[in-house]
Amino acid sequence: MRSLYGLPSTVIHCKFCLMNNQKPFSMNETKNKKGSSKNGLYINNEGKCAACIYNEKKNTNIDWAVREQKLKIMLAKYRKKNGNYDCIVSGSGGKDSSTIAHLLKYKYNMNPLTVTYSPILYTEVGWRNLRNWIYVGGFDNYLFTPNGKISSILAREAFKNMLHPIQPFKFGIKSIAAKMALRFDIKLVMFGEPYAEYGSQSINDTTSPSYNEEWFINDNKDIYLSGVSIGQLKKRYQSITDNDLIPYLPIKSSELKKRKLNVEFLGWYIKWDPQEIYYYACKNNGFEVDDQRTDGTYGRYSGIDDKFEWLHYYCHYIKYGIGRARFDASQEIRSGHISREEGIKLCKKFEGERPKRYFQDCLNFMDIDIDEAEKIIDSFRSPHLWKYQSNKWTRVQELKELNE
Ligand SMILES: [Zn+2]
Questions:
Q1: Is the pLDDT reported for residue 201 higher than 60?
Q2: Ligand 1 center to residue 19 CA distance, Å?
Q3: String of b and e for 52-82 (b: at least 16 CB within 10 Å)?
Q4: Cα(132) to centroid of ligand 1, in Å?
């Protein structure tokens, strides 16, 4: 069976959580072209995925007291006593970013500057949480909002070319912290959750606290945005100027080397439990959960800042067969909060549900009508994952329990 996106044509499921080898990985979005191939989640011979392997290691093999000691030594190198900011934490005000900033400031005595690359369309609860972070948590913050006319064009192109409407935004959030650090001459950037929490392409990615700078550096001349080259984009939209695209441009490696910027994950140094992080954010930063369950899953507190998140997870489900409920359930299985059987029940109930709540808002923003959107969505169903029969789409190569 043919696999679009260069993912393995045979689906292998992790035997411990609900993930499978179709989950692609973070990459430098300015190198991501239409039709680029992707690496999927690593699964070992025993059927255990990289996220589950990392989780086991996190709970048994890591001496967290030693790691915290290492954190204190590392932070001491960057702490400033003259009132200047000594590190950058970027985020929208969600549970993770607000907690990292709070720990760094109030537990480890740092002076972080928080920066926010605005979601494409802030939800009401997301906006309140940004304000809560600043006012209840107590932080200085720069909110950067890119030109809305340009982000509308880029979201539309990314939706049409890659079924990935938030792709340009993703690059923005990956790079804003480093860009602001260079601007303010700050040498340390801290992110929270190591990507290994969600698995990786190899199991070697967990041995260092460093963030992969490859994700926001690009020394090449040919830069891609929304799946097309900047040249093609400017040809298609003649009103776009070079200035309009500055927020989406990568950093040159020489700039980082010259300034000795260090970008790390706090979650490498302290044990990262998403549920604990959530409690911490509520208690210390006034973090609020949504007033209703998120379409496509059962949760109310993850990825609730941007109206586009709902559509994004749905697109992910169409392209890779992995929906929002499966991310939430797999993570909770690993943390020991639910069993795999309970996770399967939750996925059966919620996975792949249409993102009704903000669907029309996203389409309006991208200036795409519903019929066109449906056609685009269906054109991204890979034949090795989907078949159309009896007037509906069914997943092939899915776990038997989920397809019953
Ligand atoms: Zn797993």
A1: no
A2: 6
A3: bbbbeebeeeeeeeeeeeebeeebeeeeeee
A4: 34
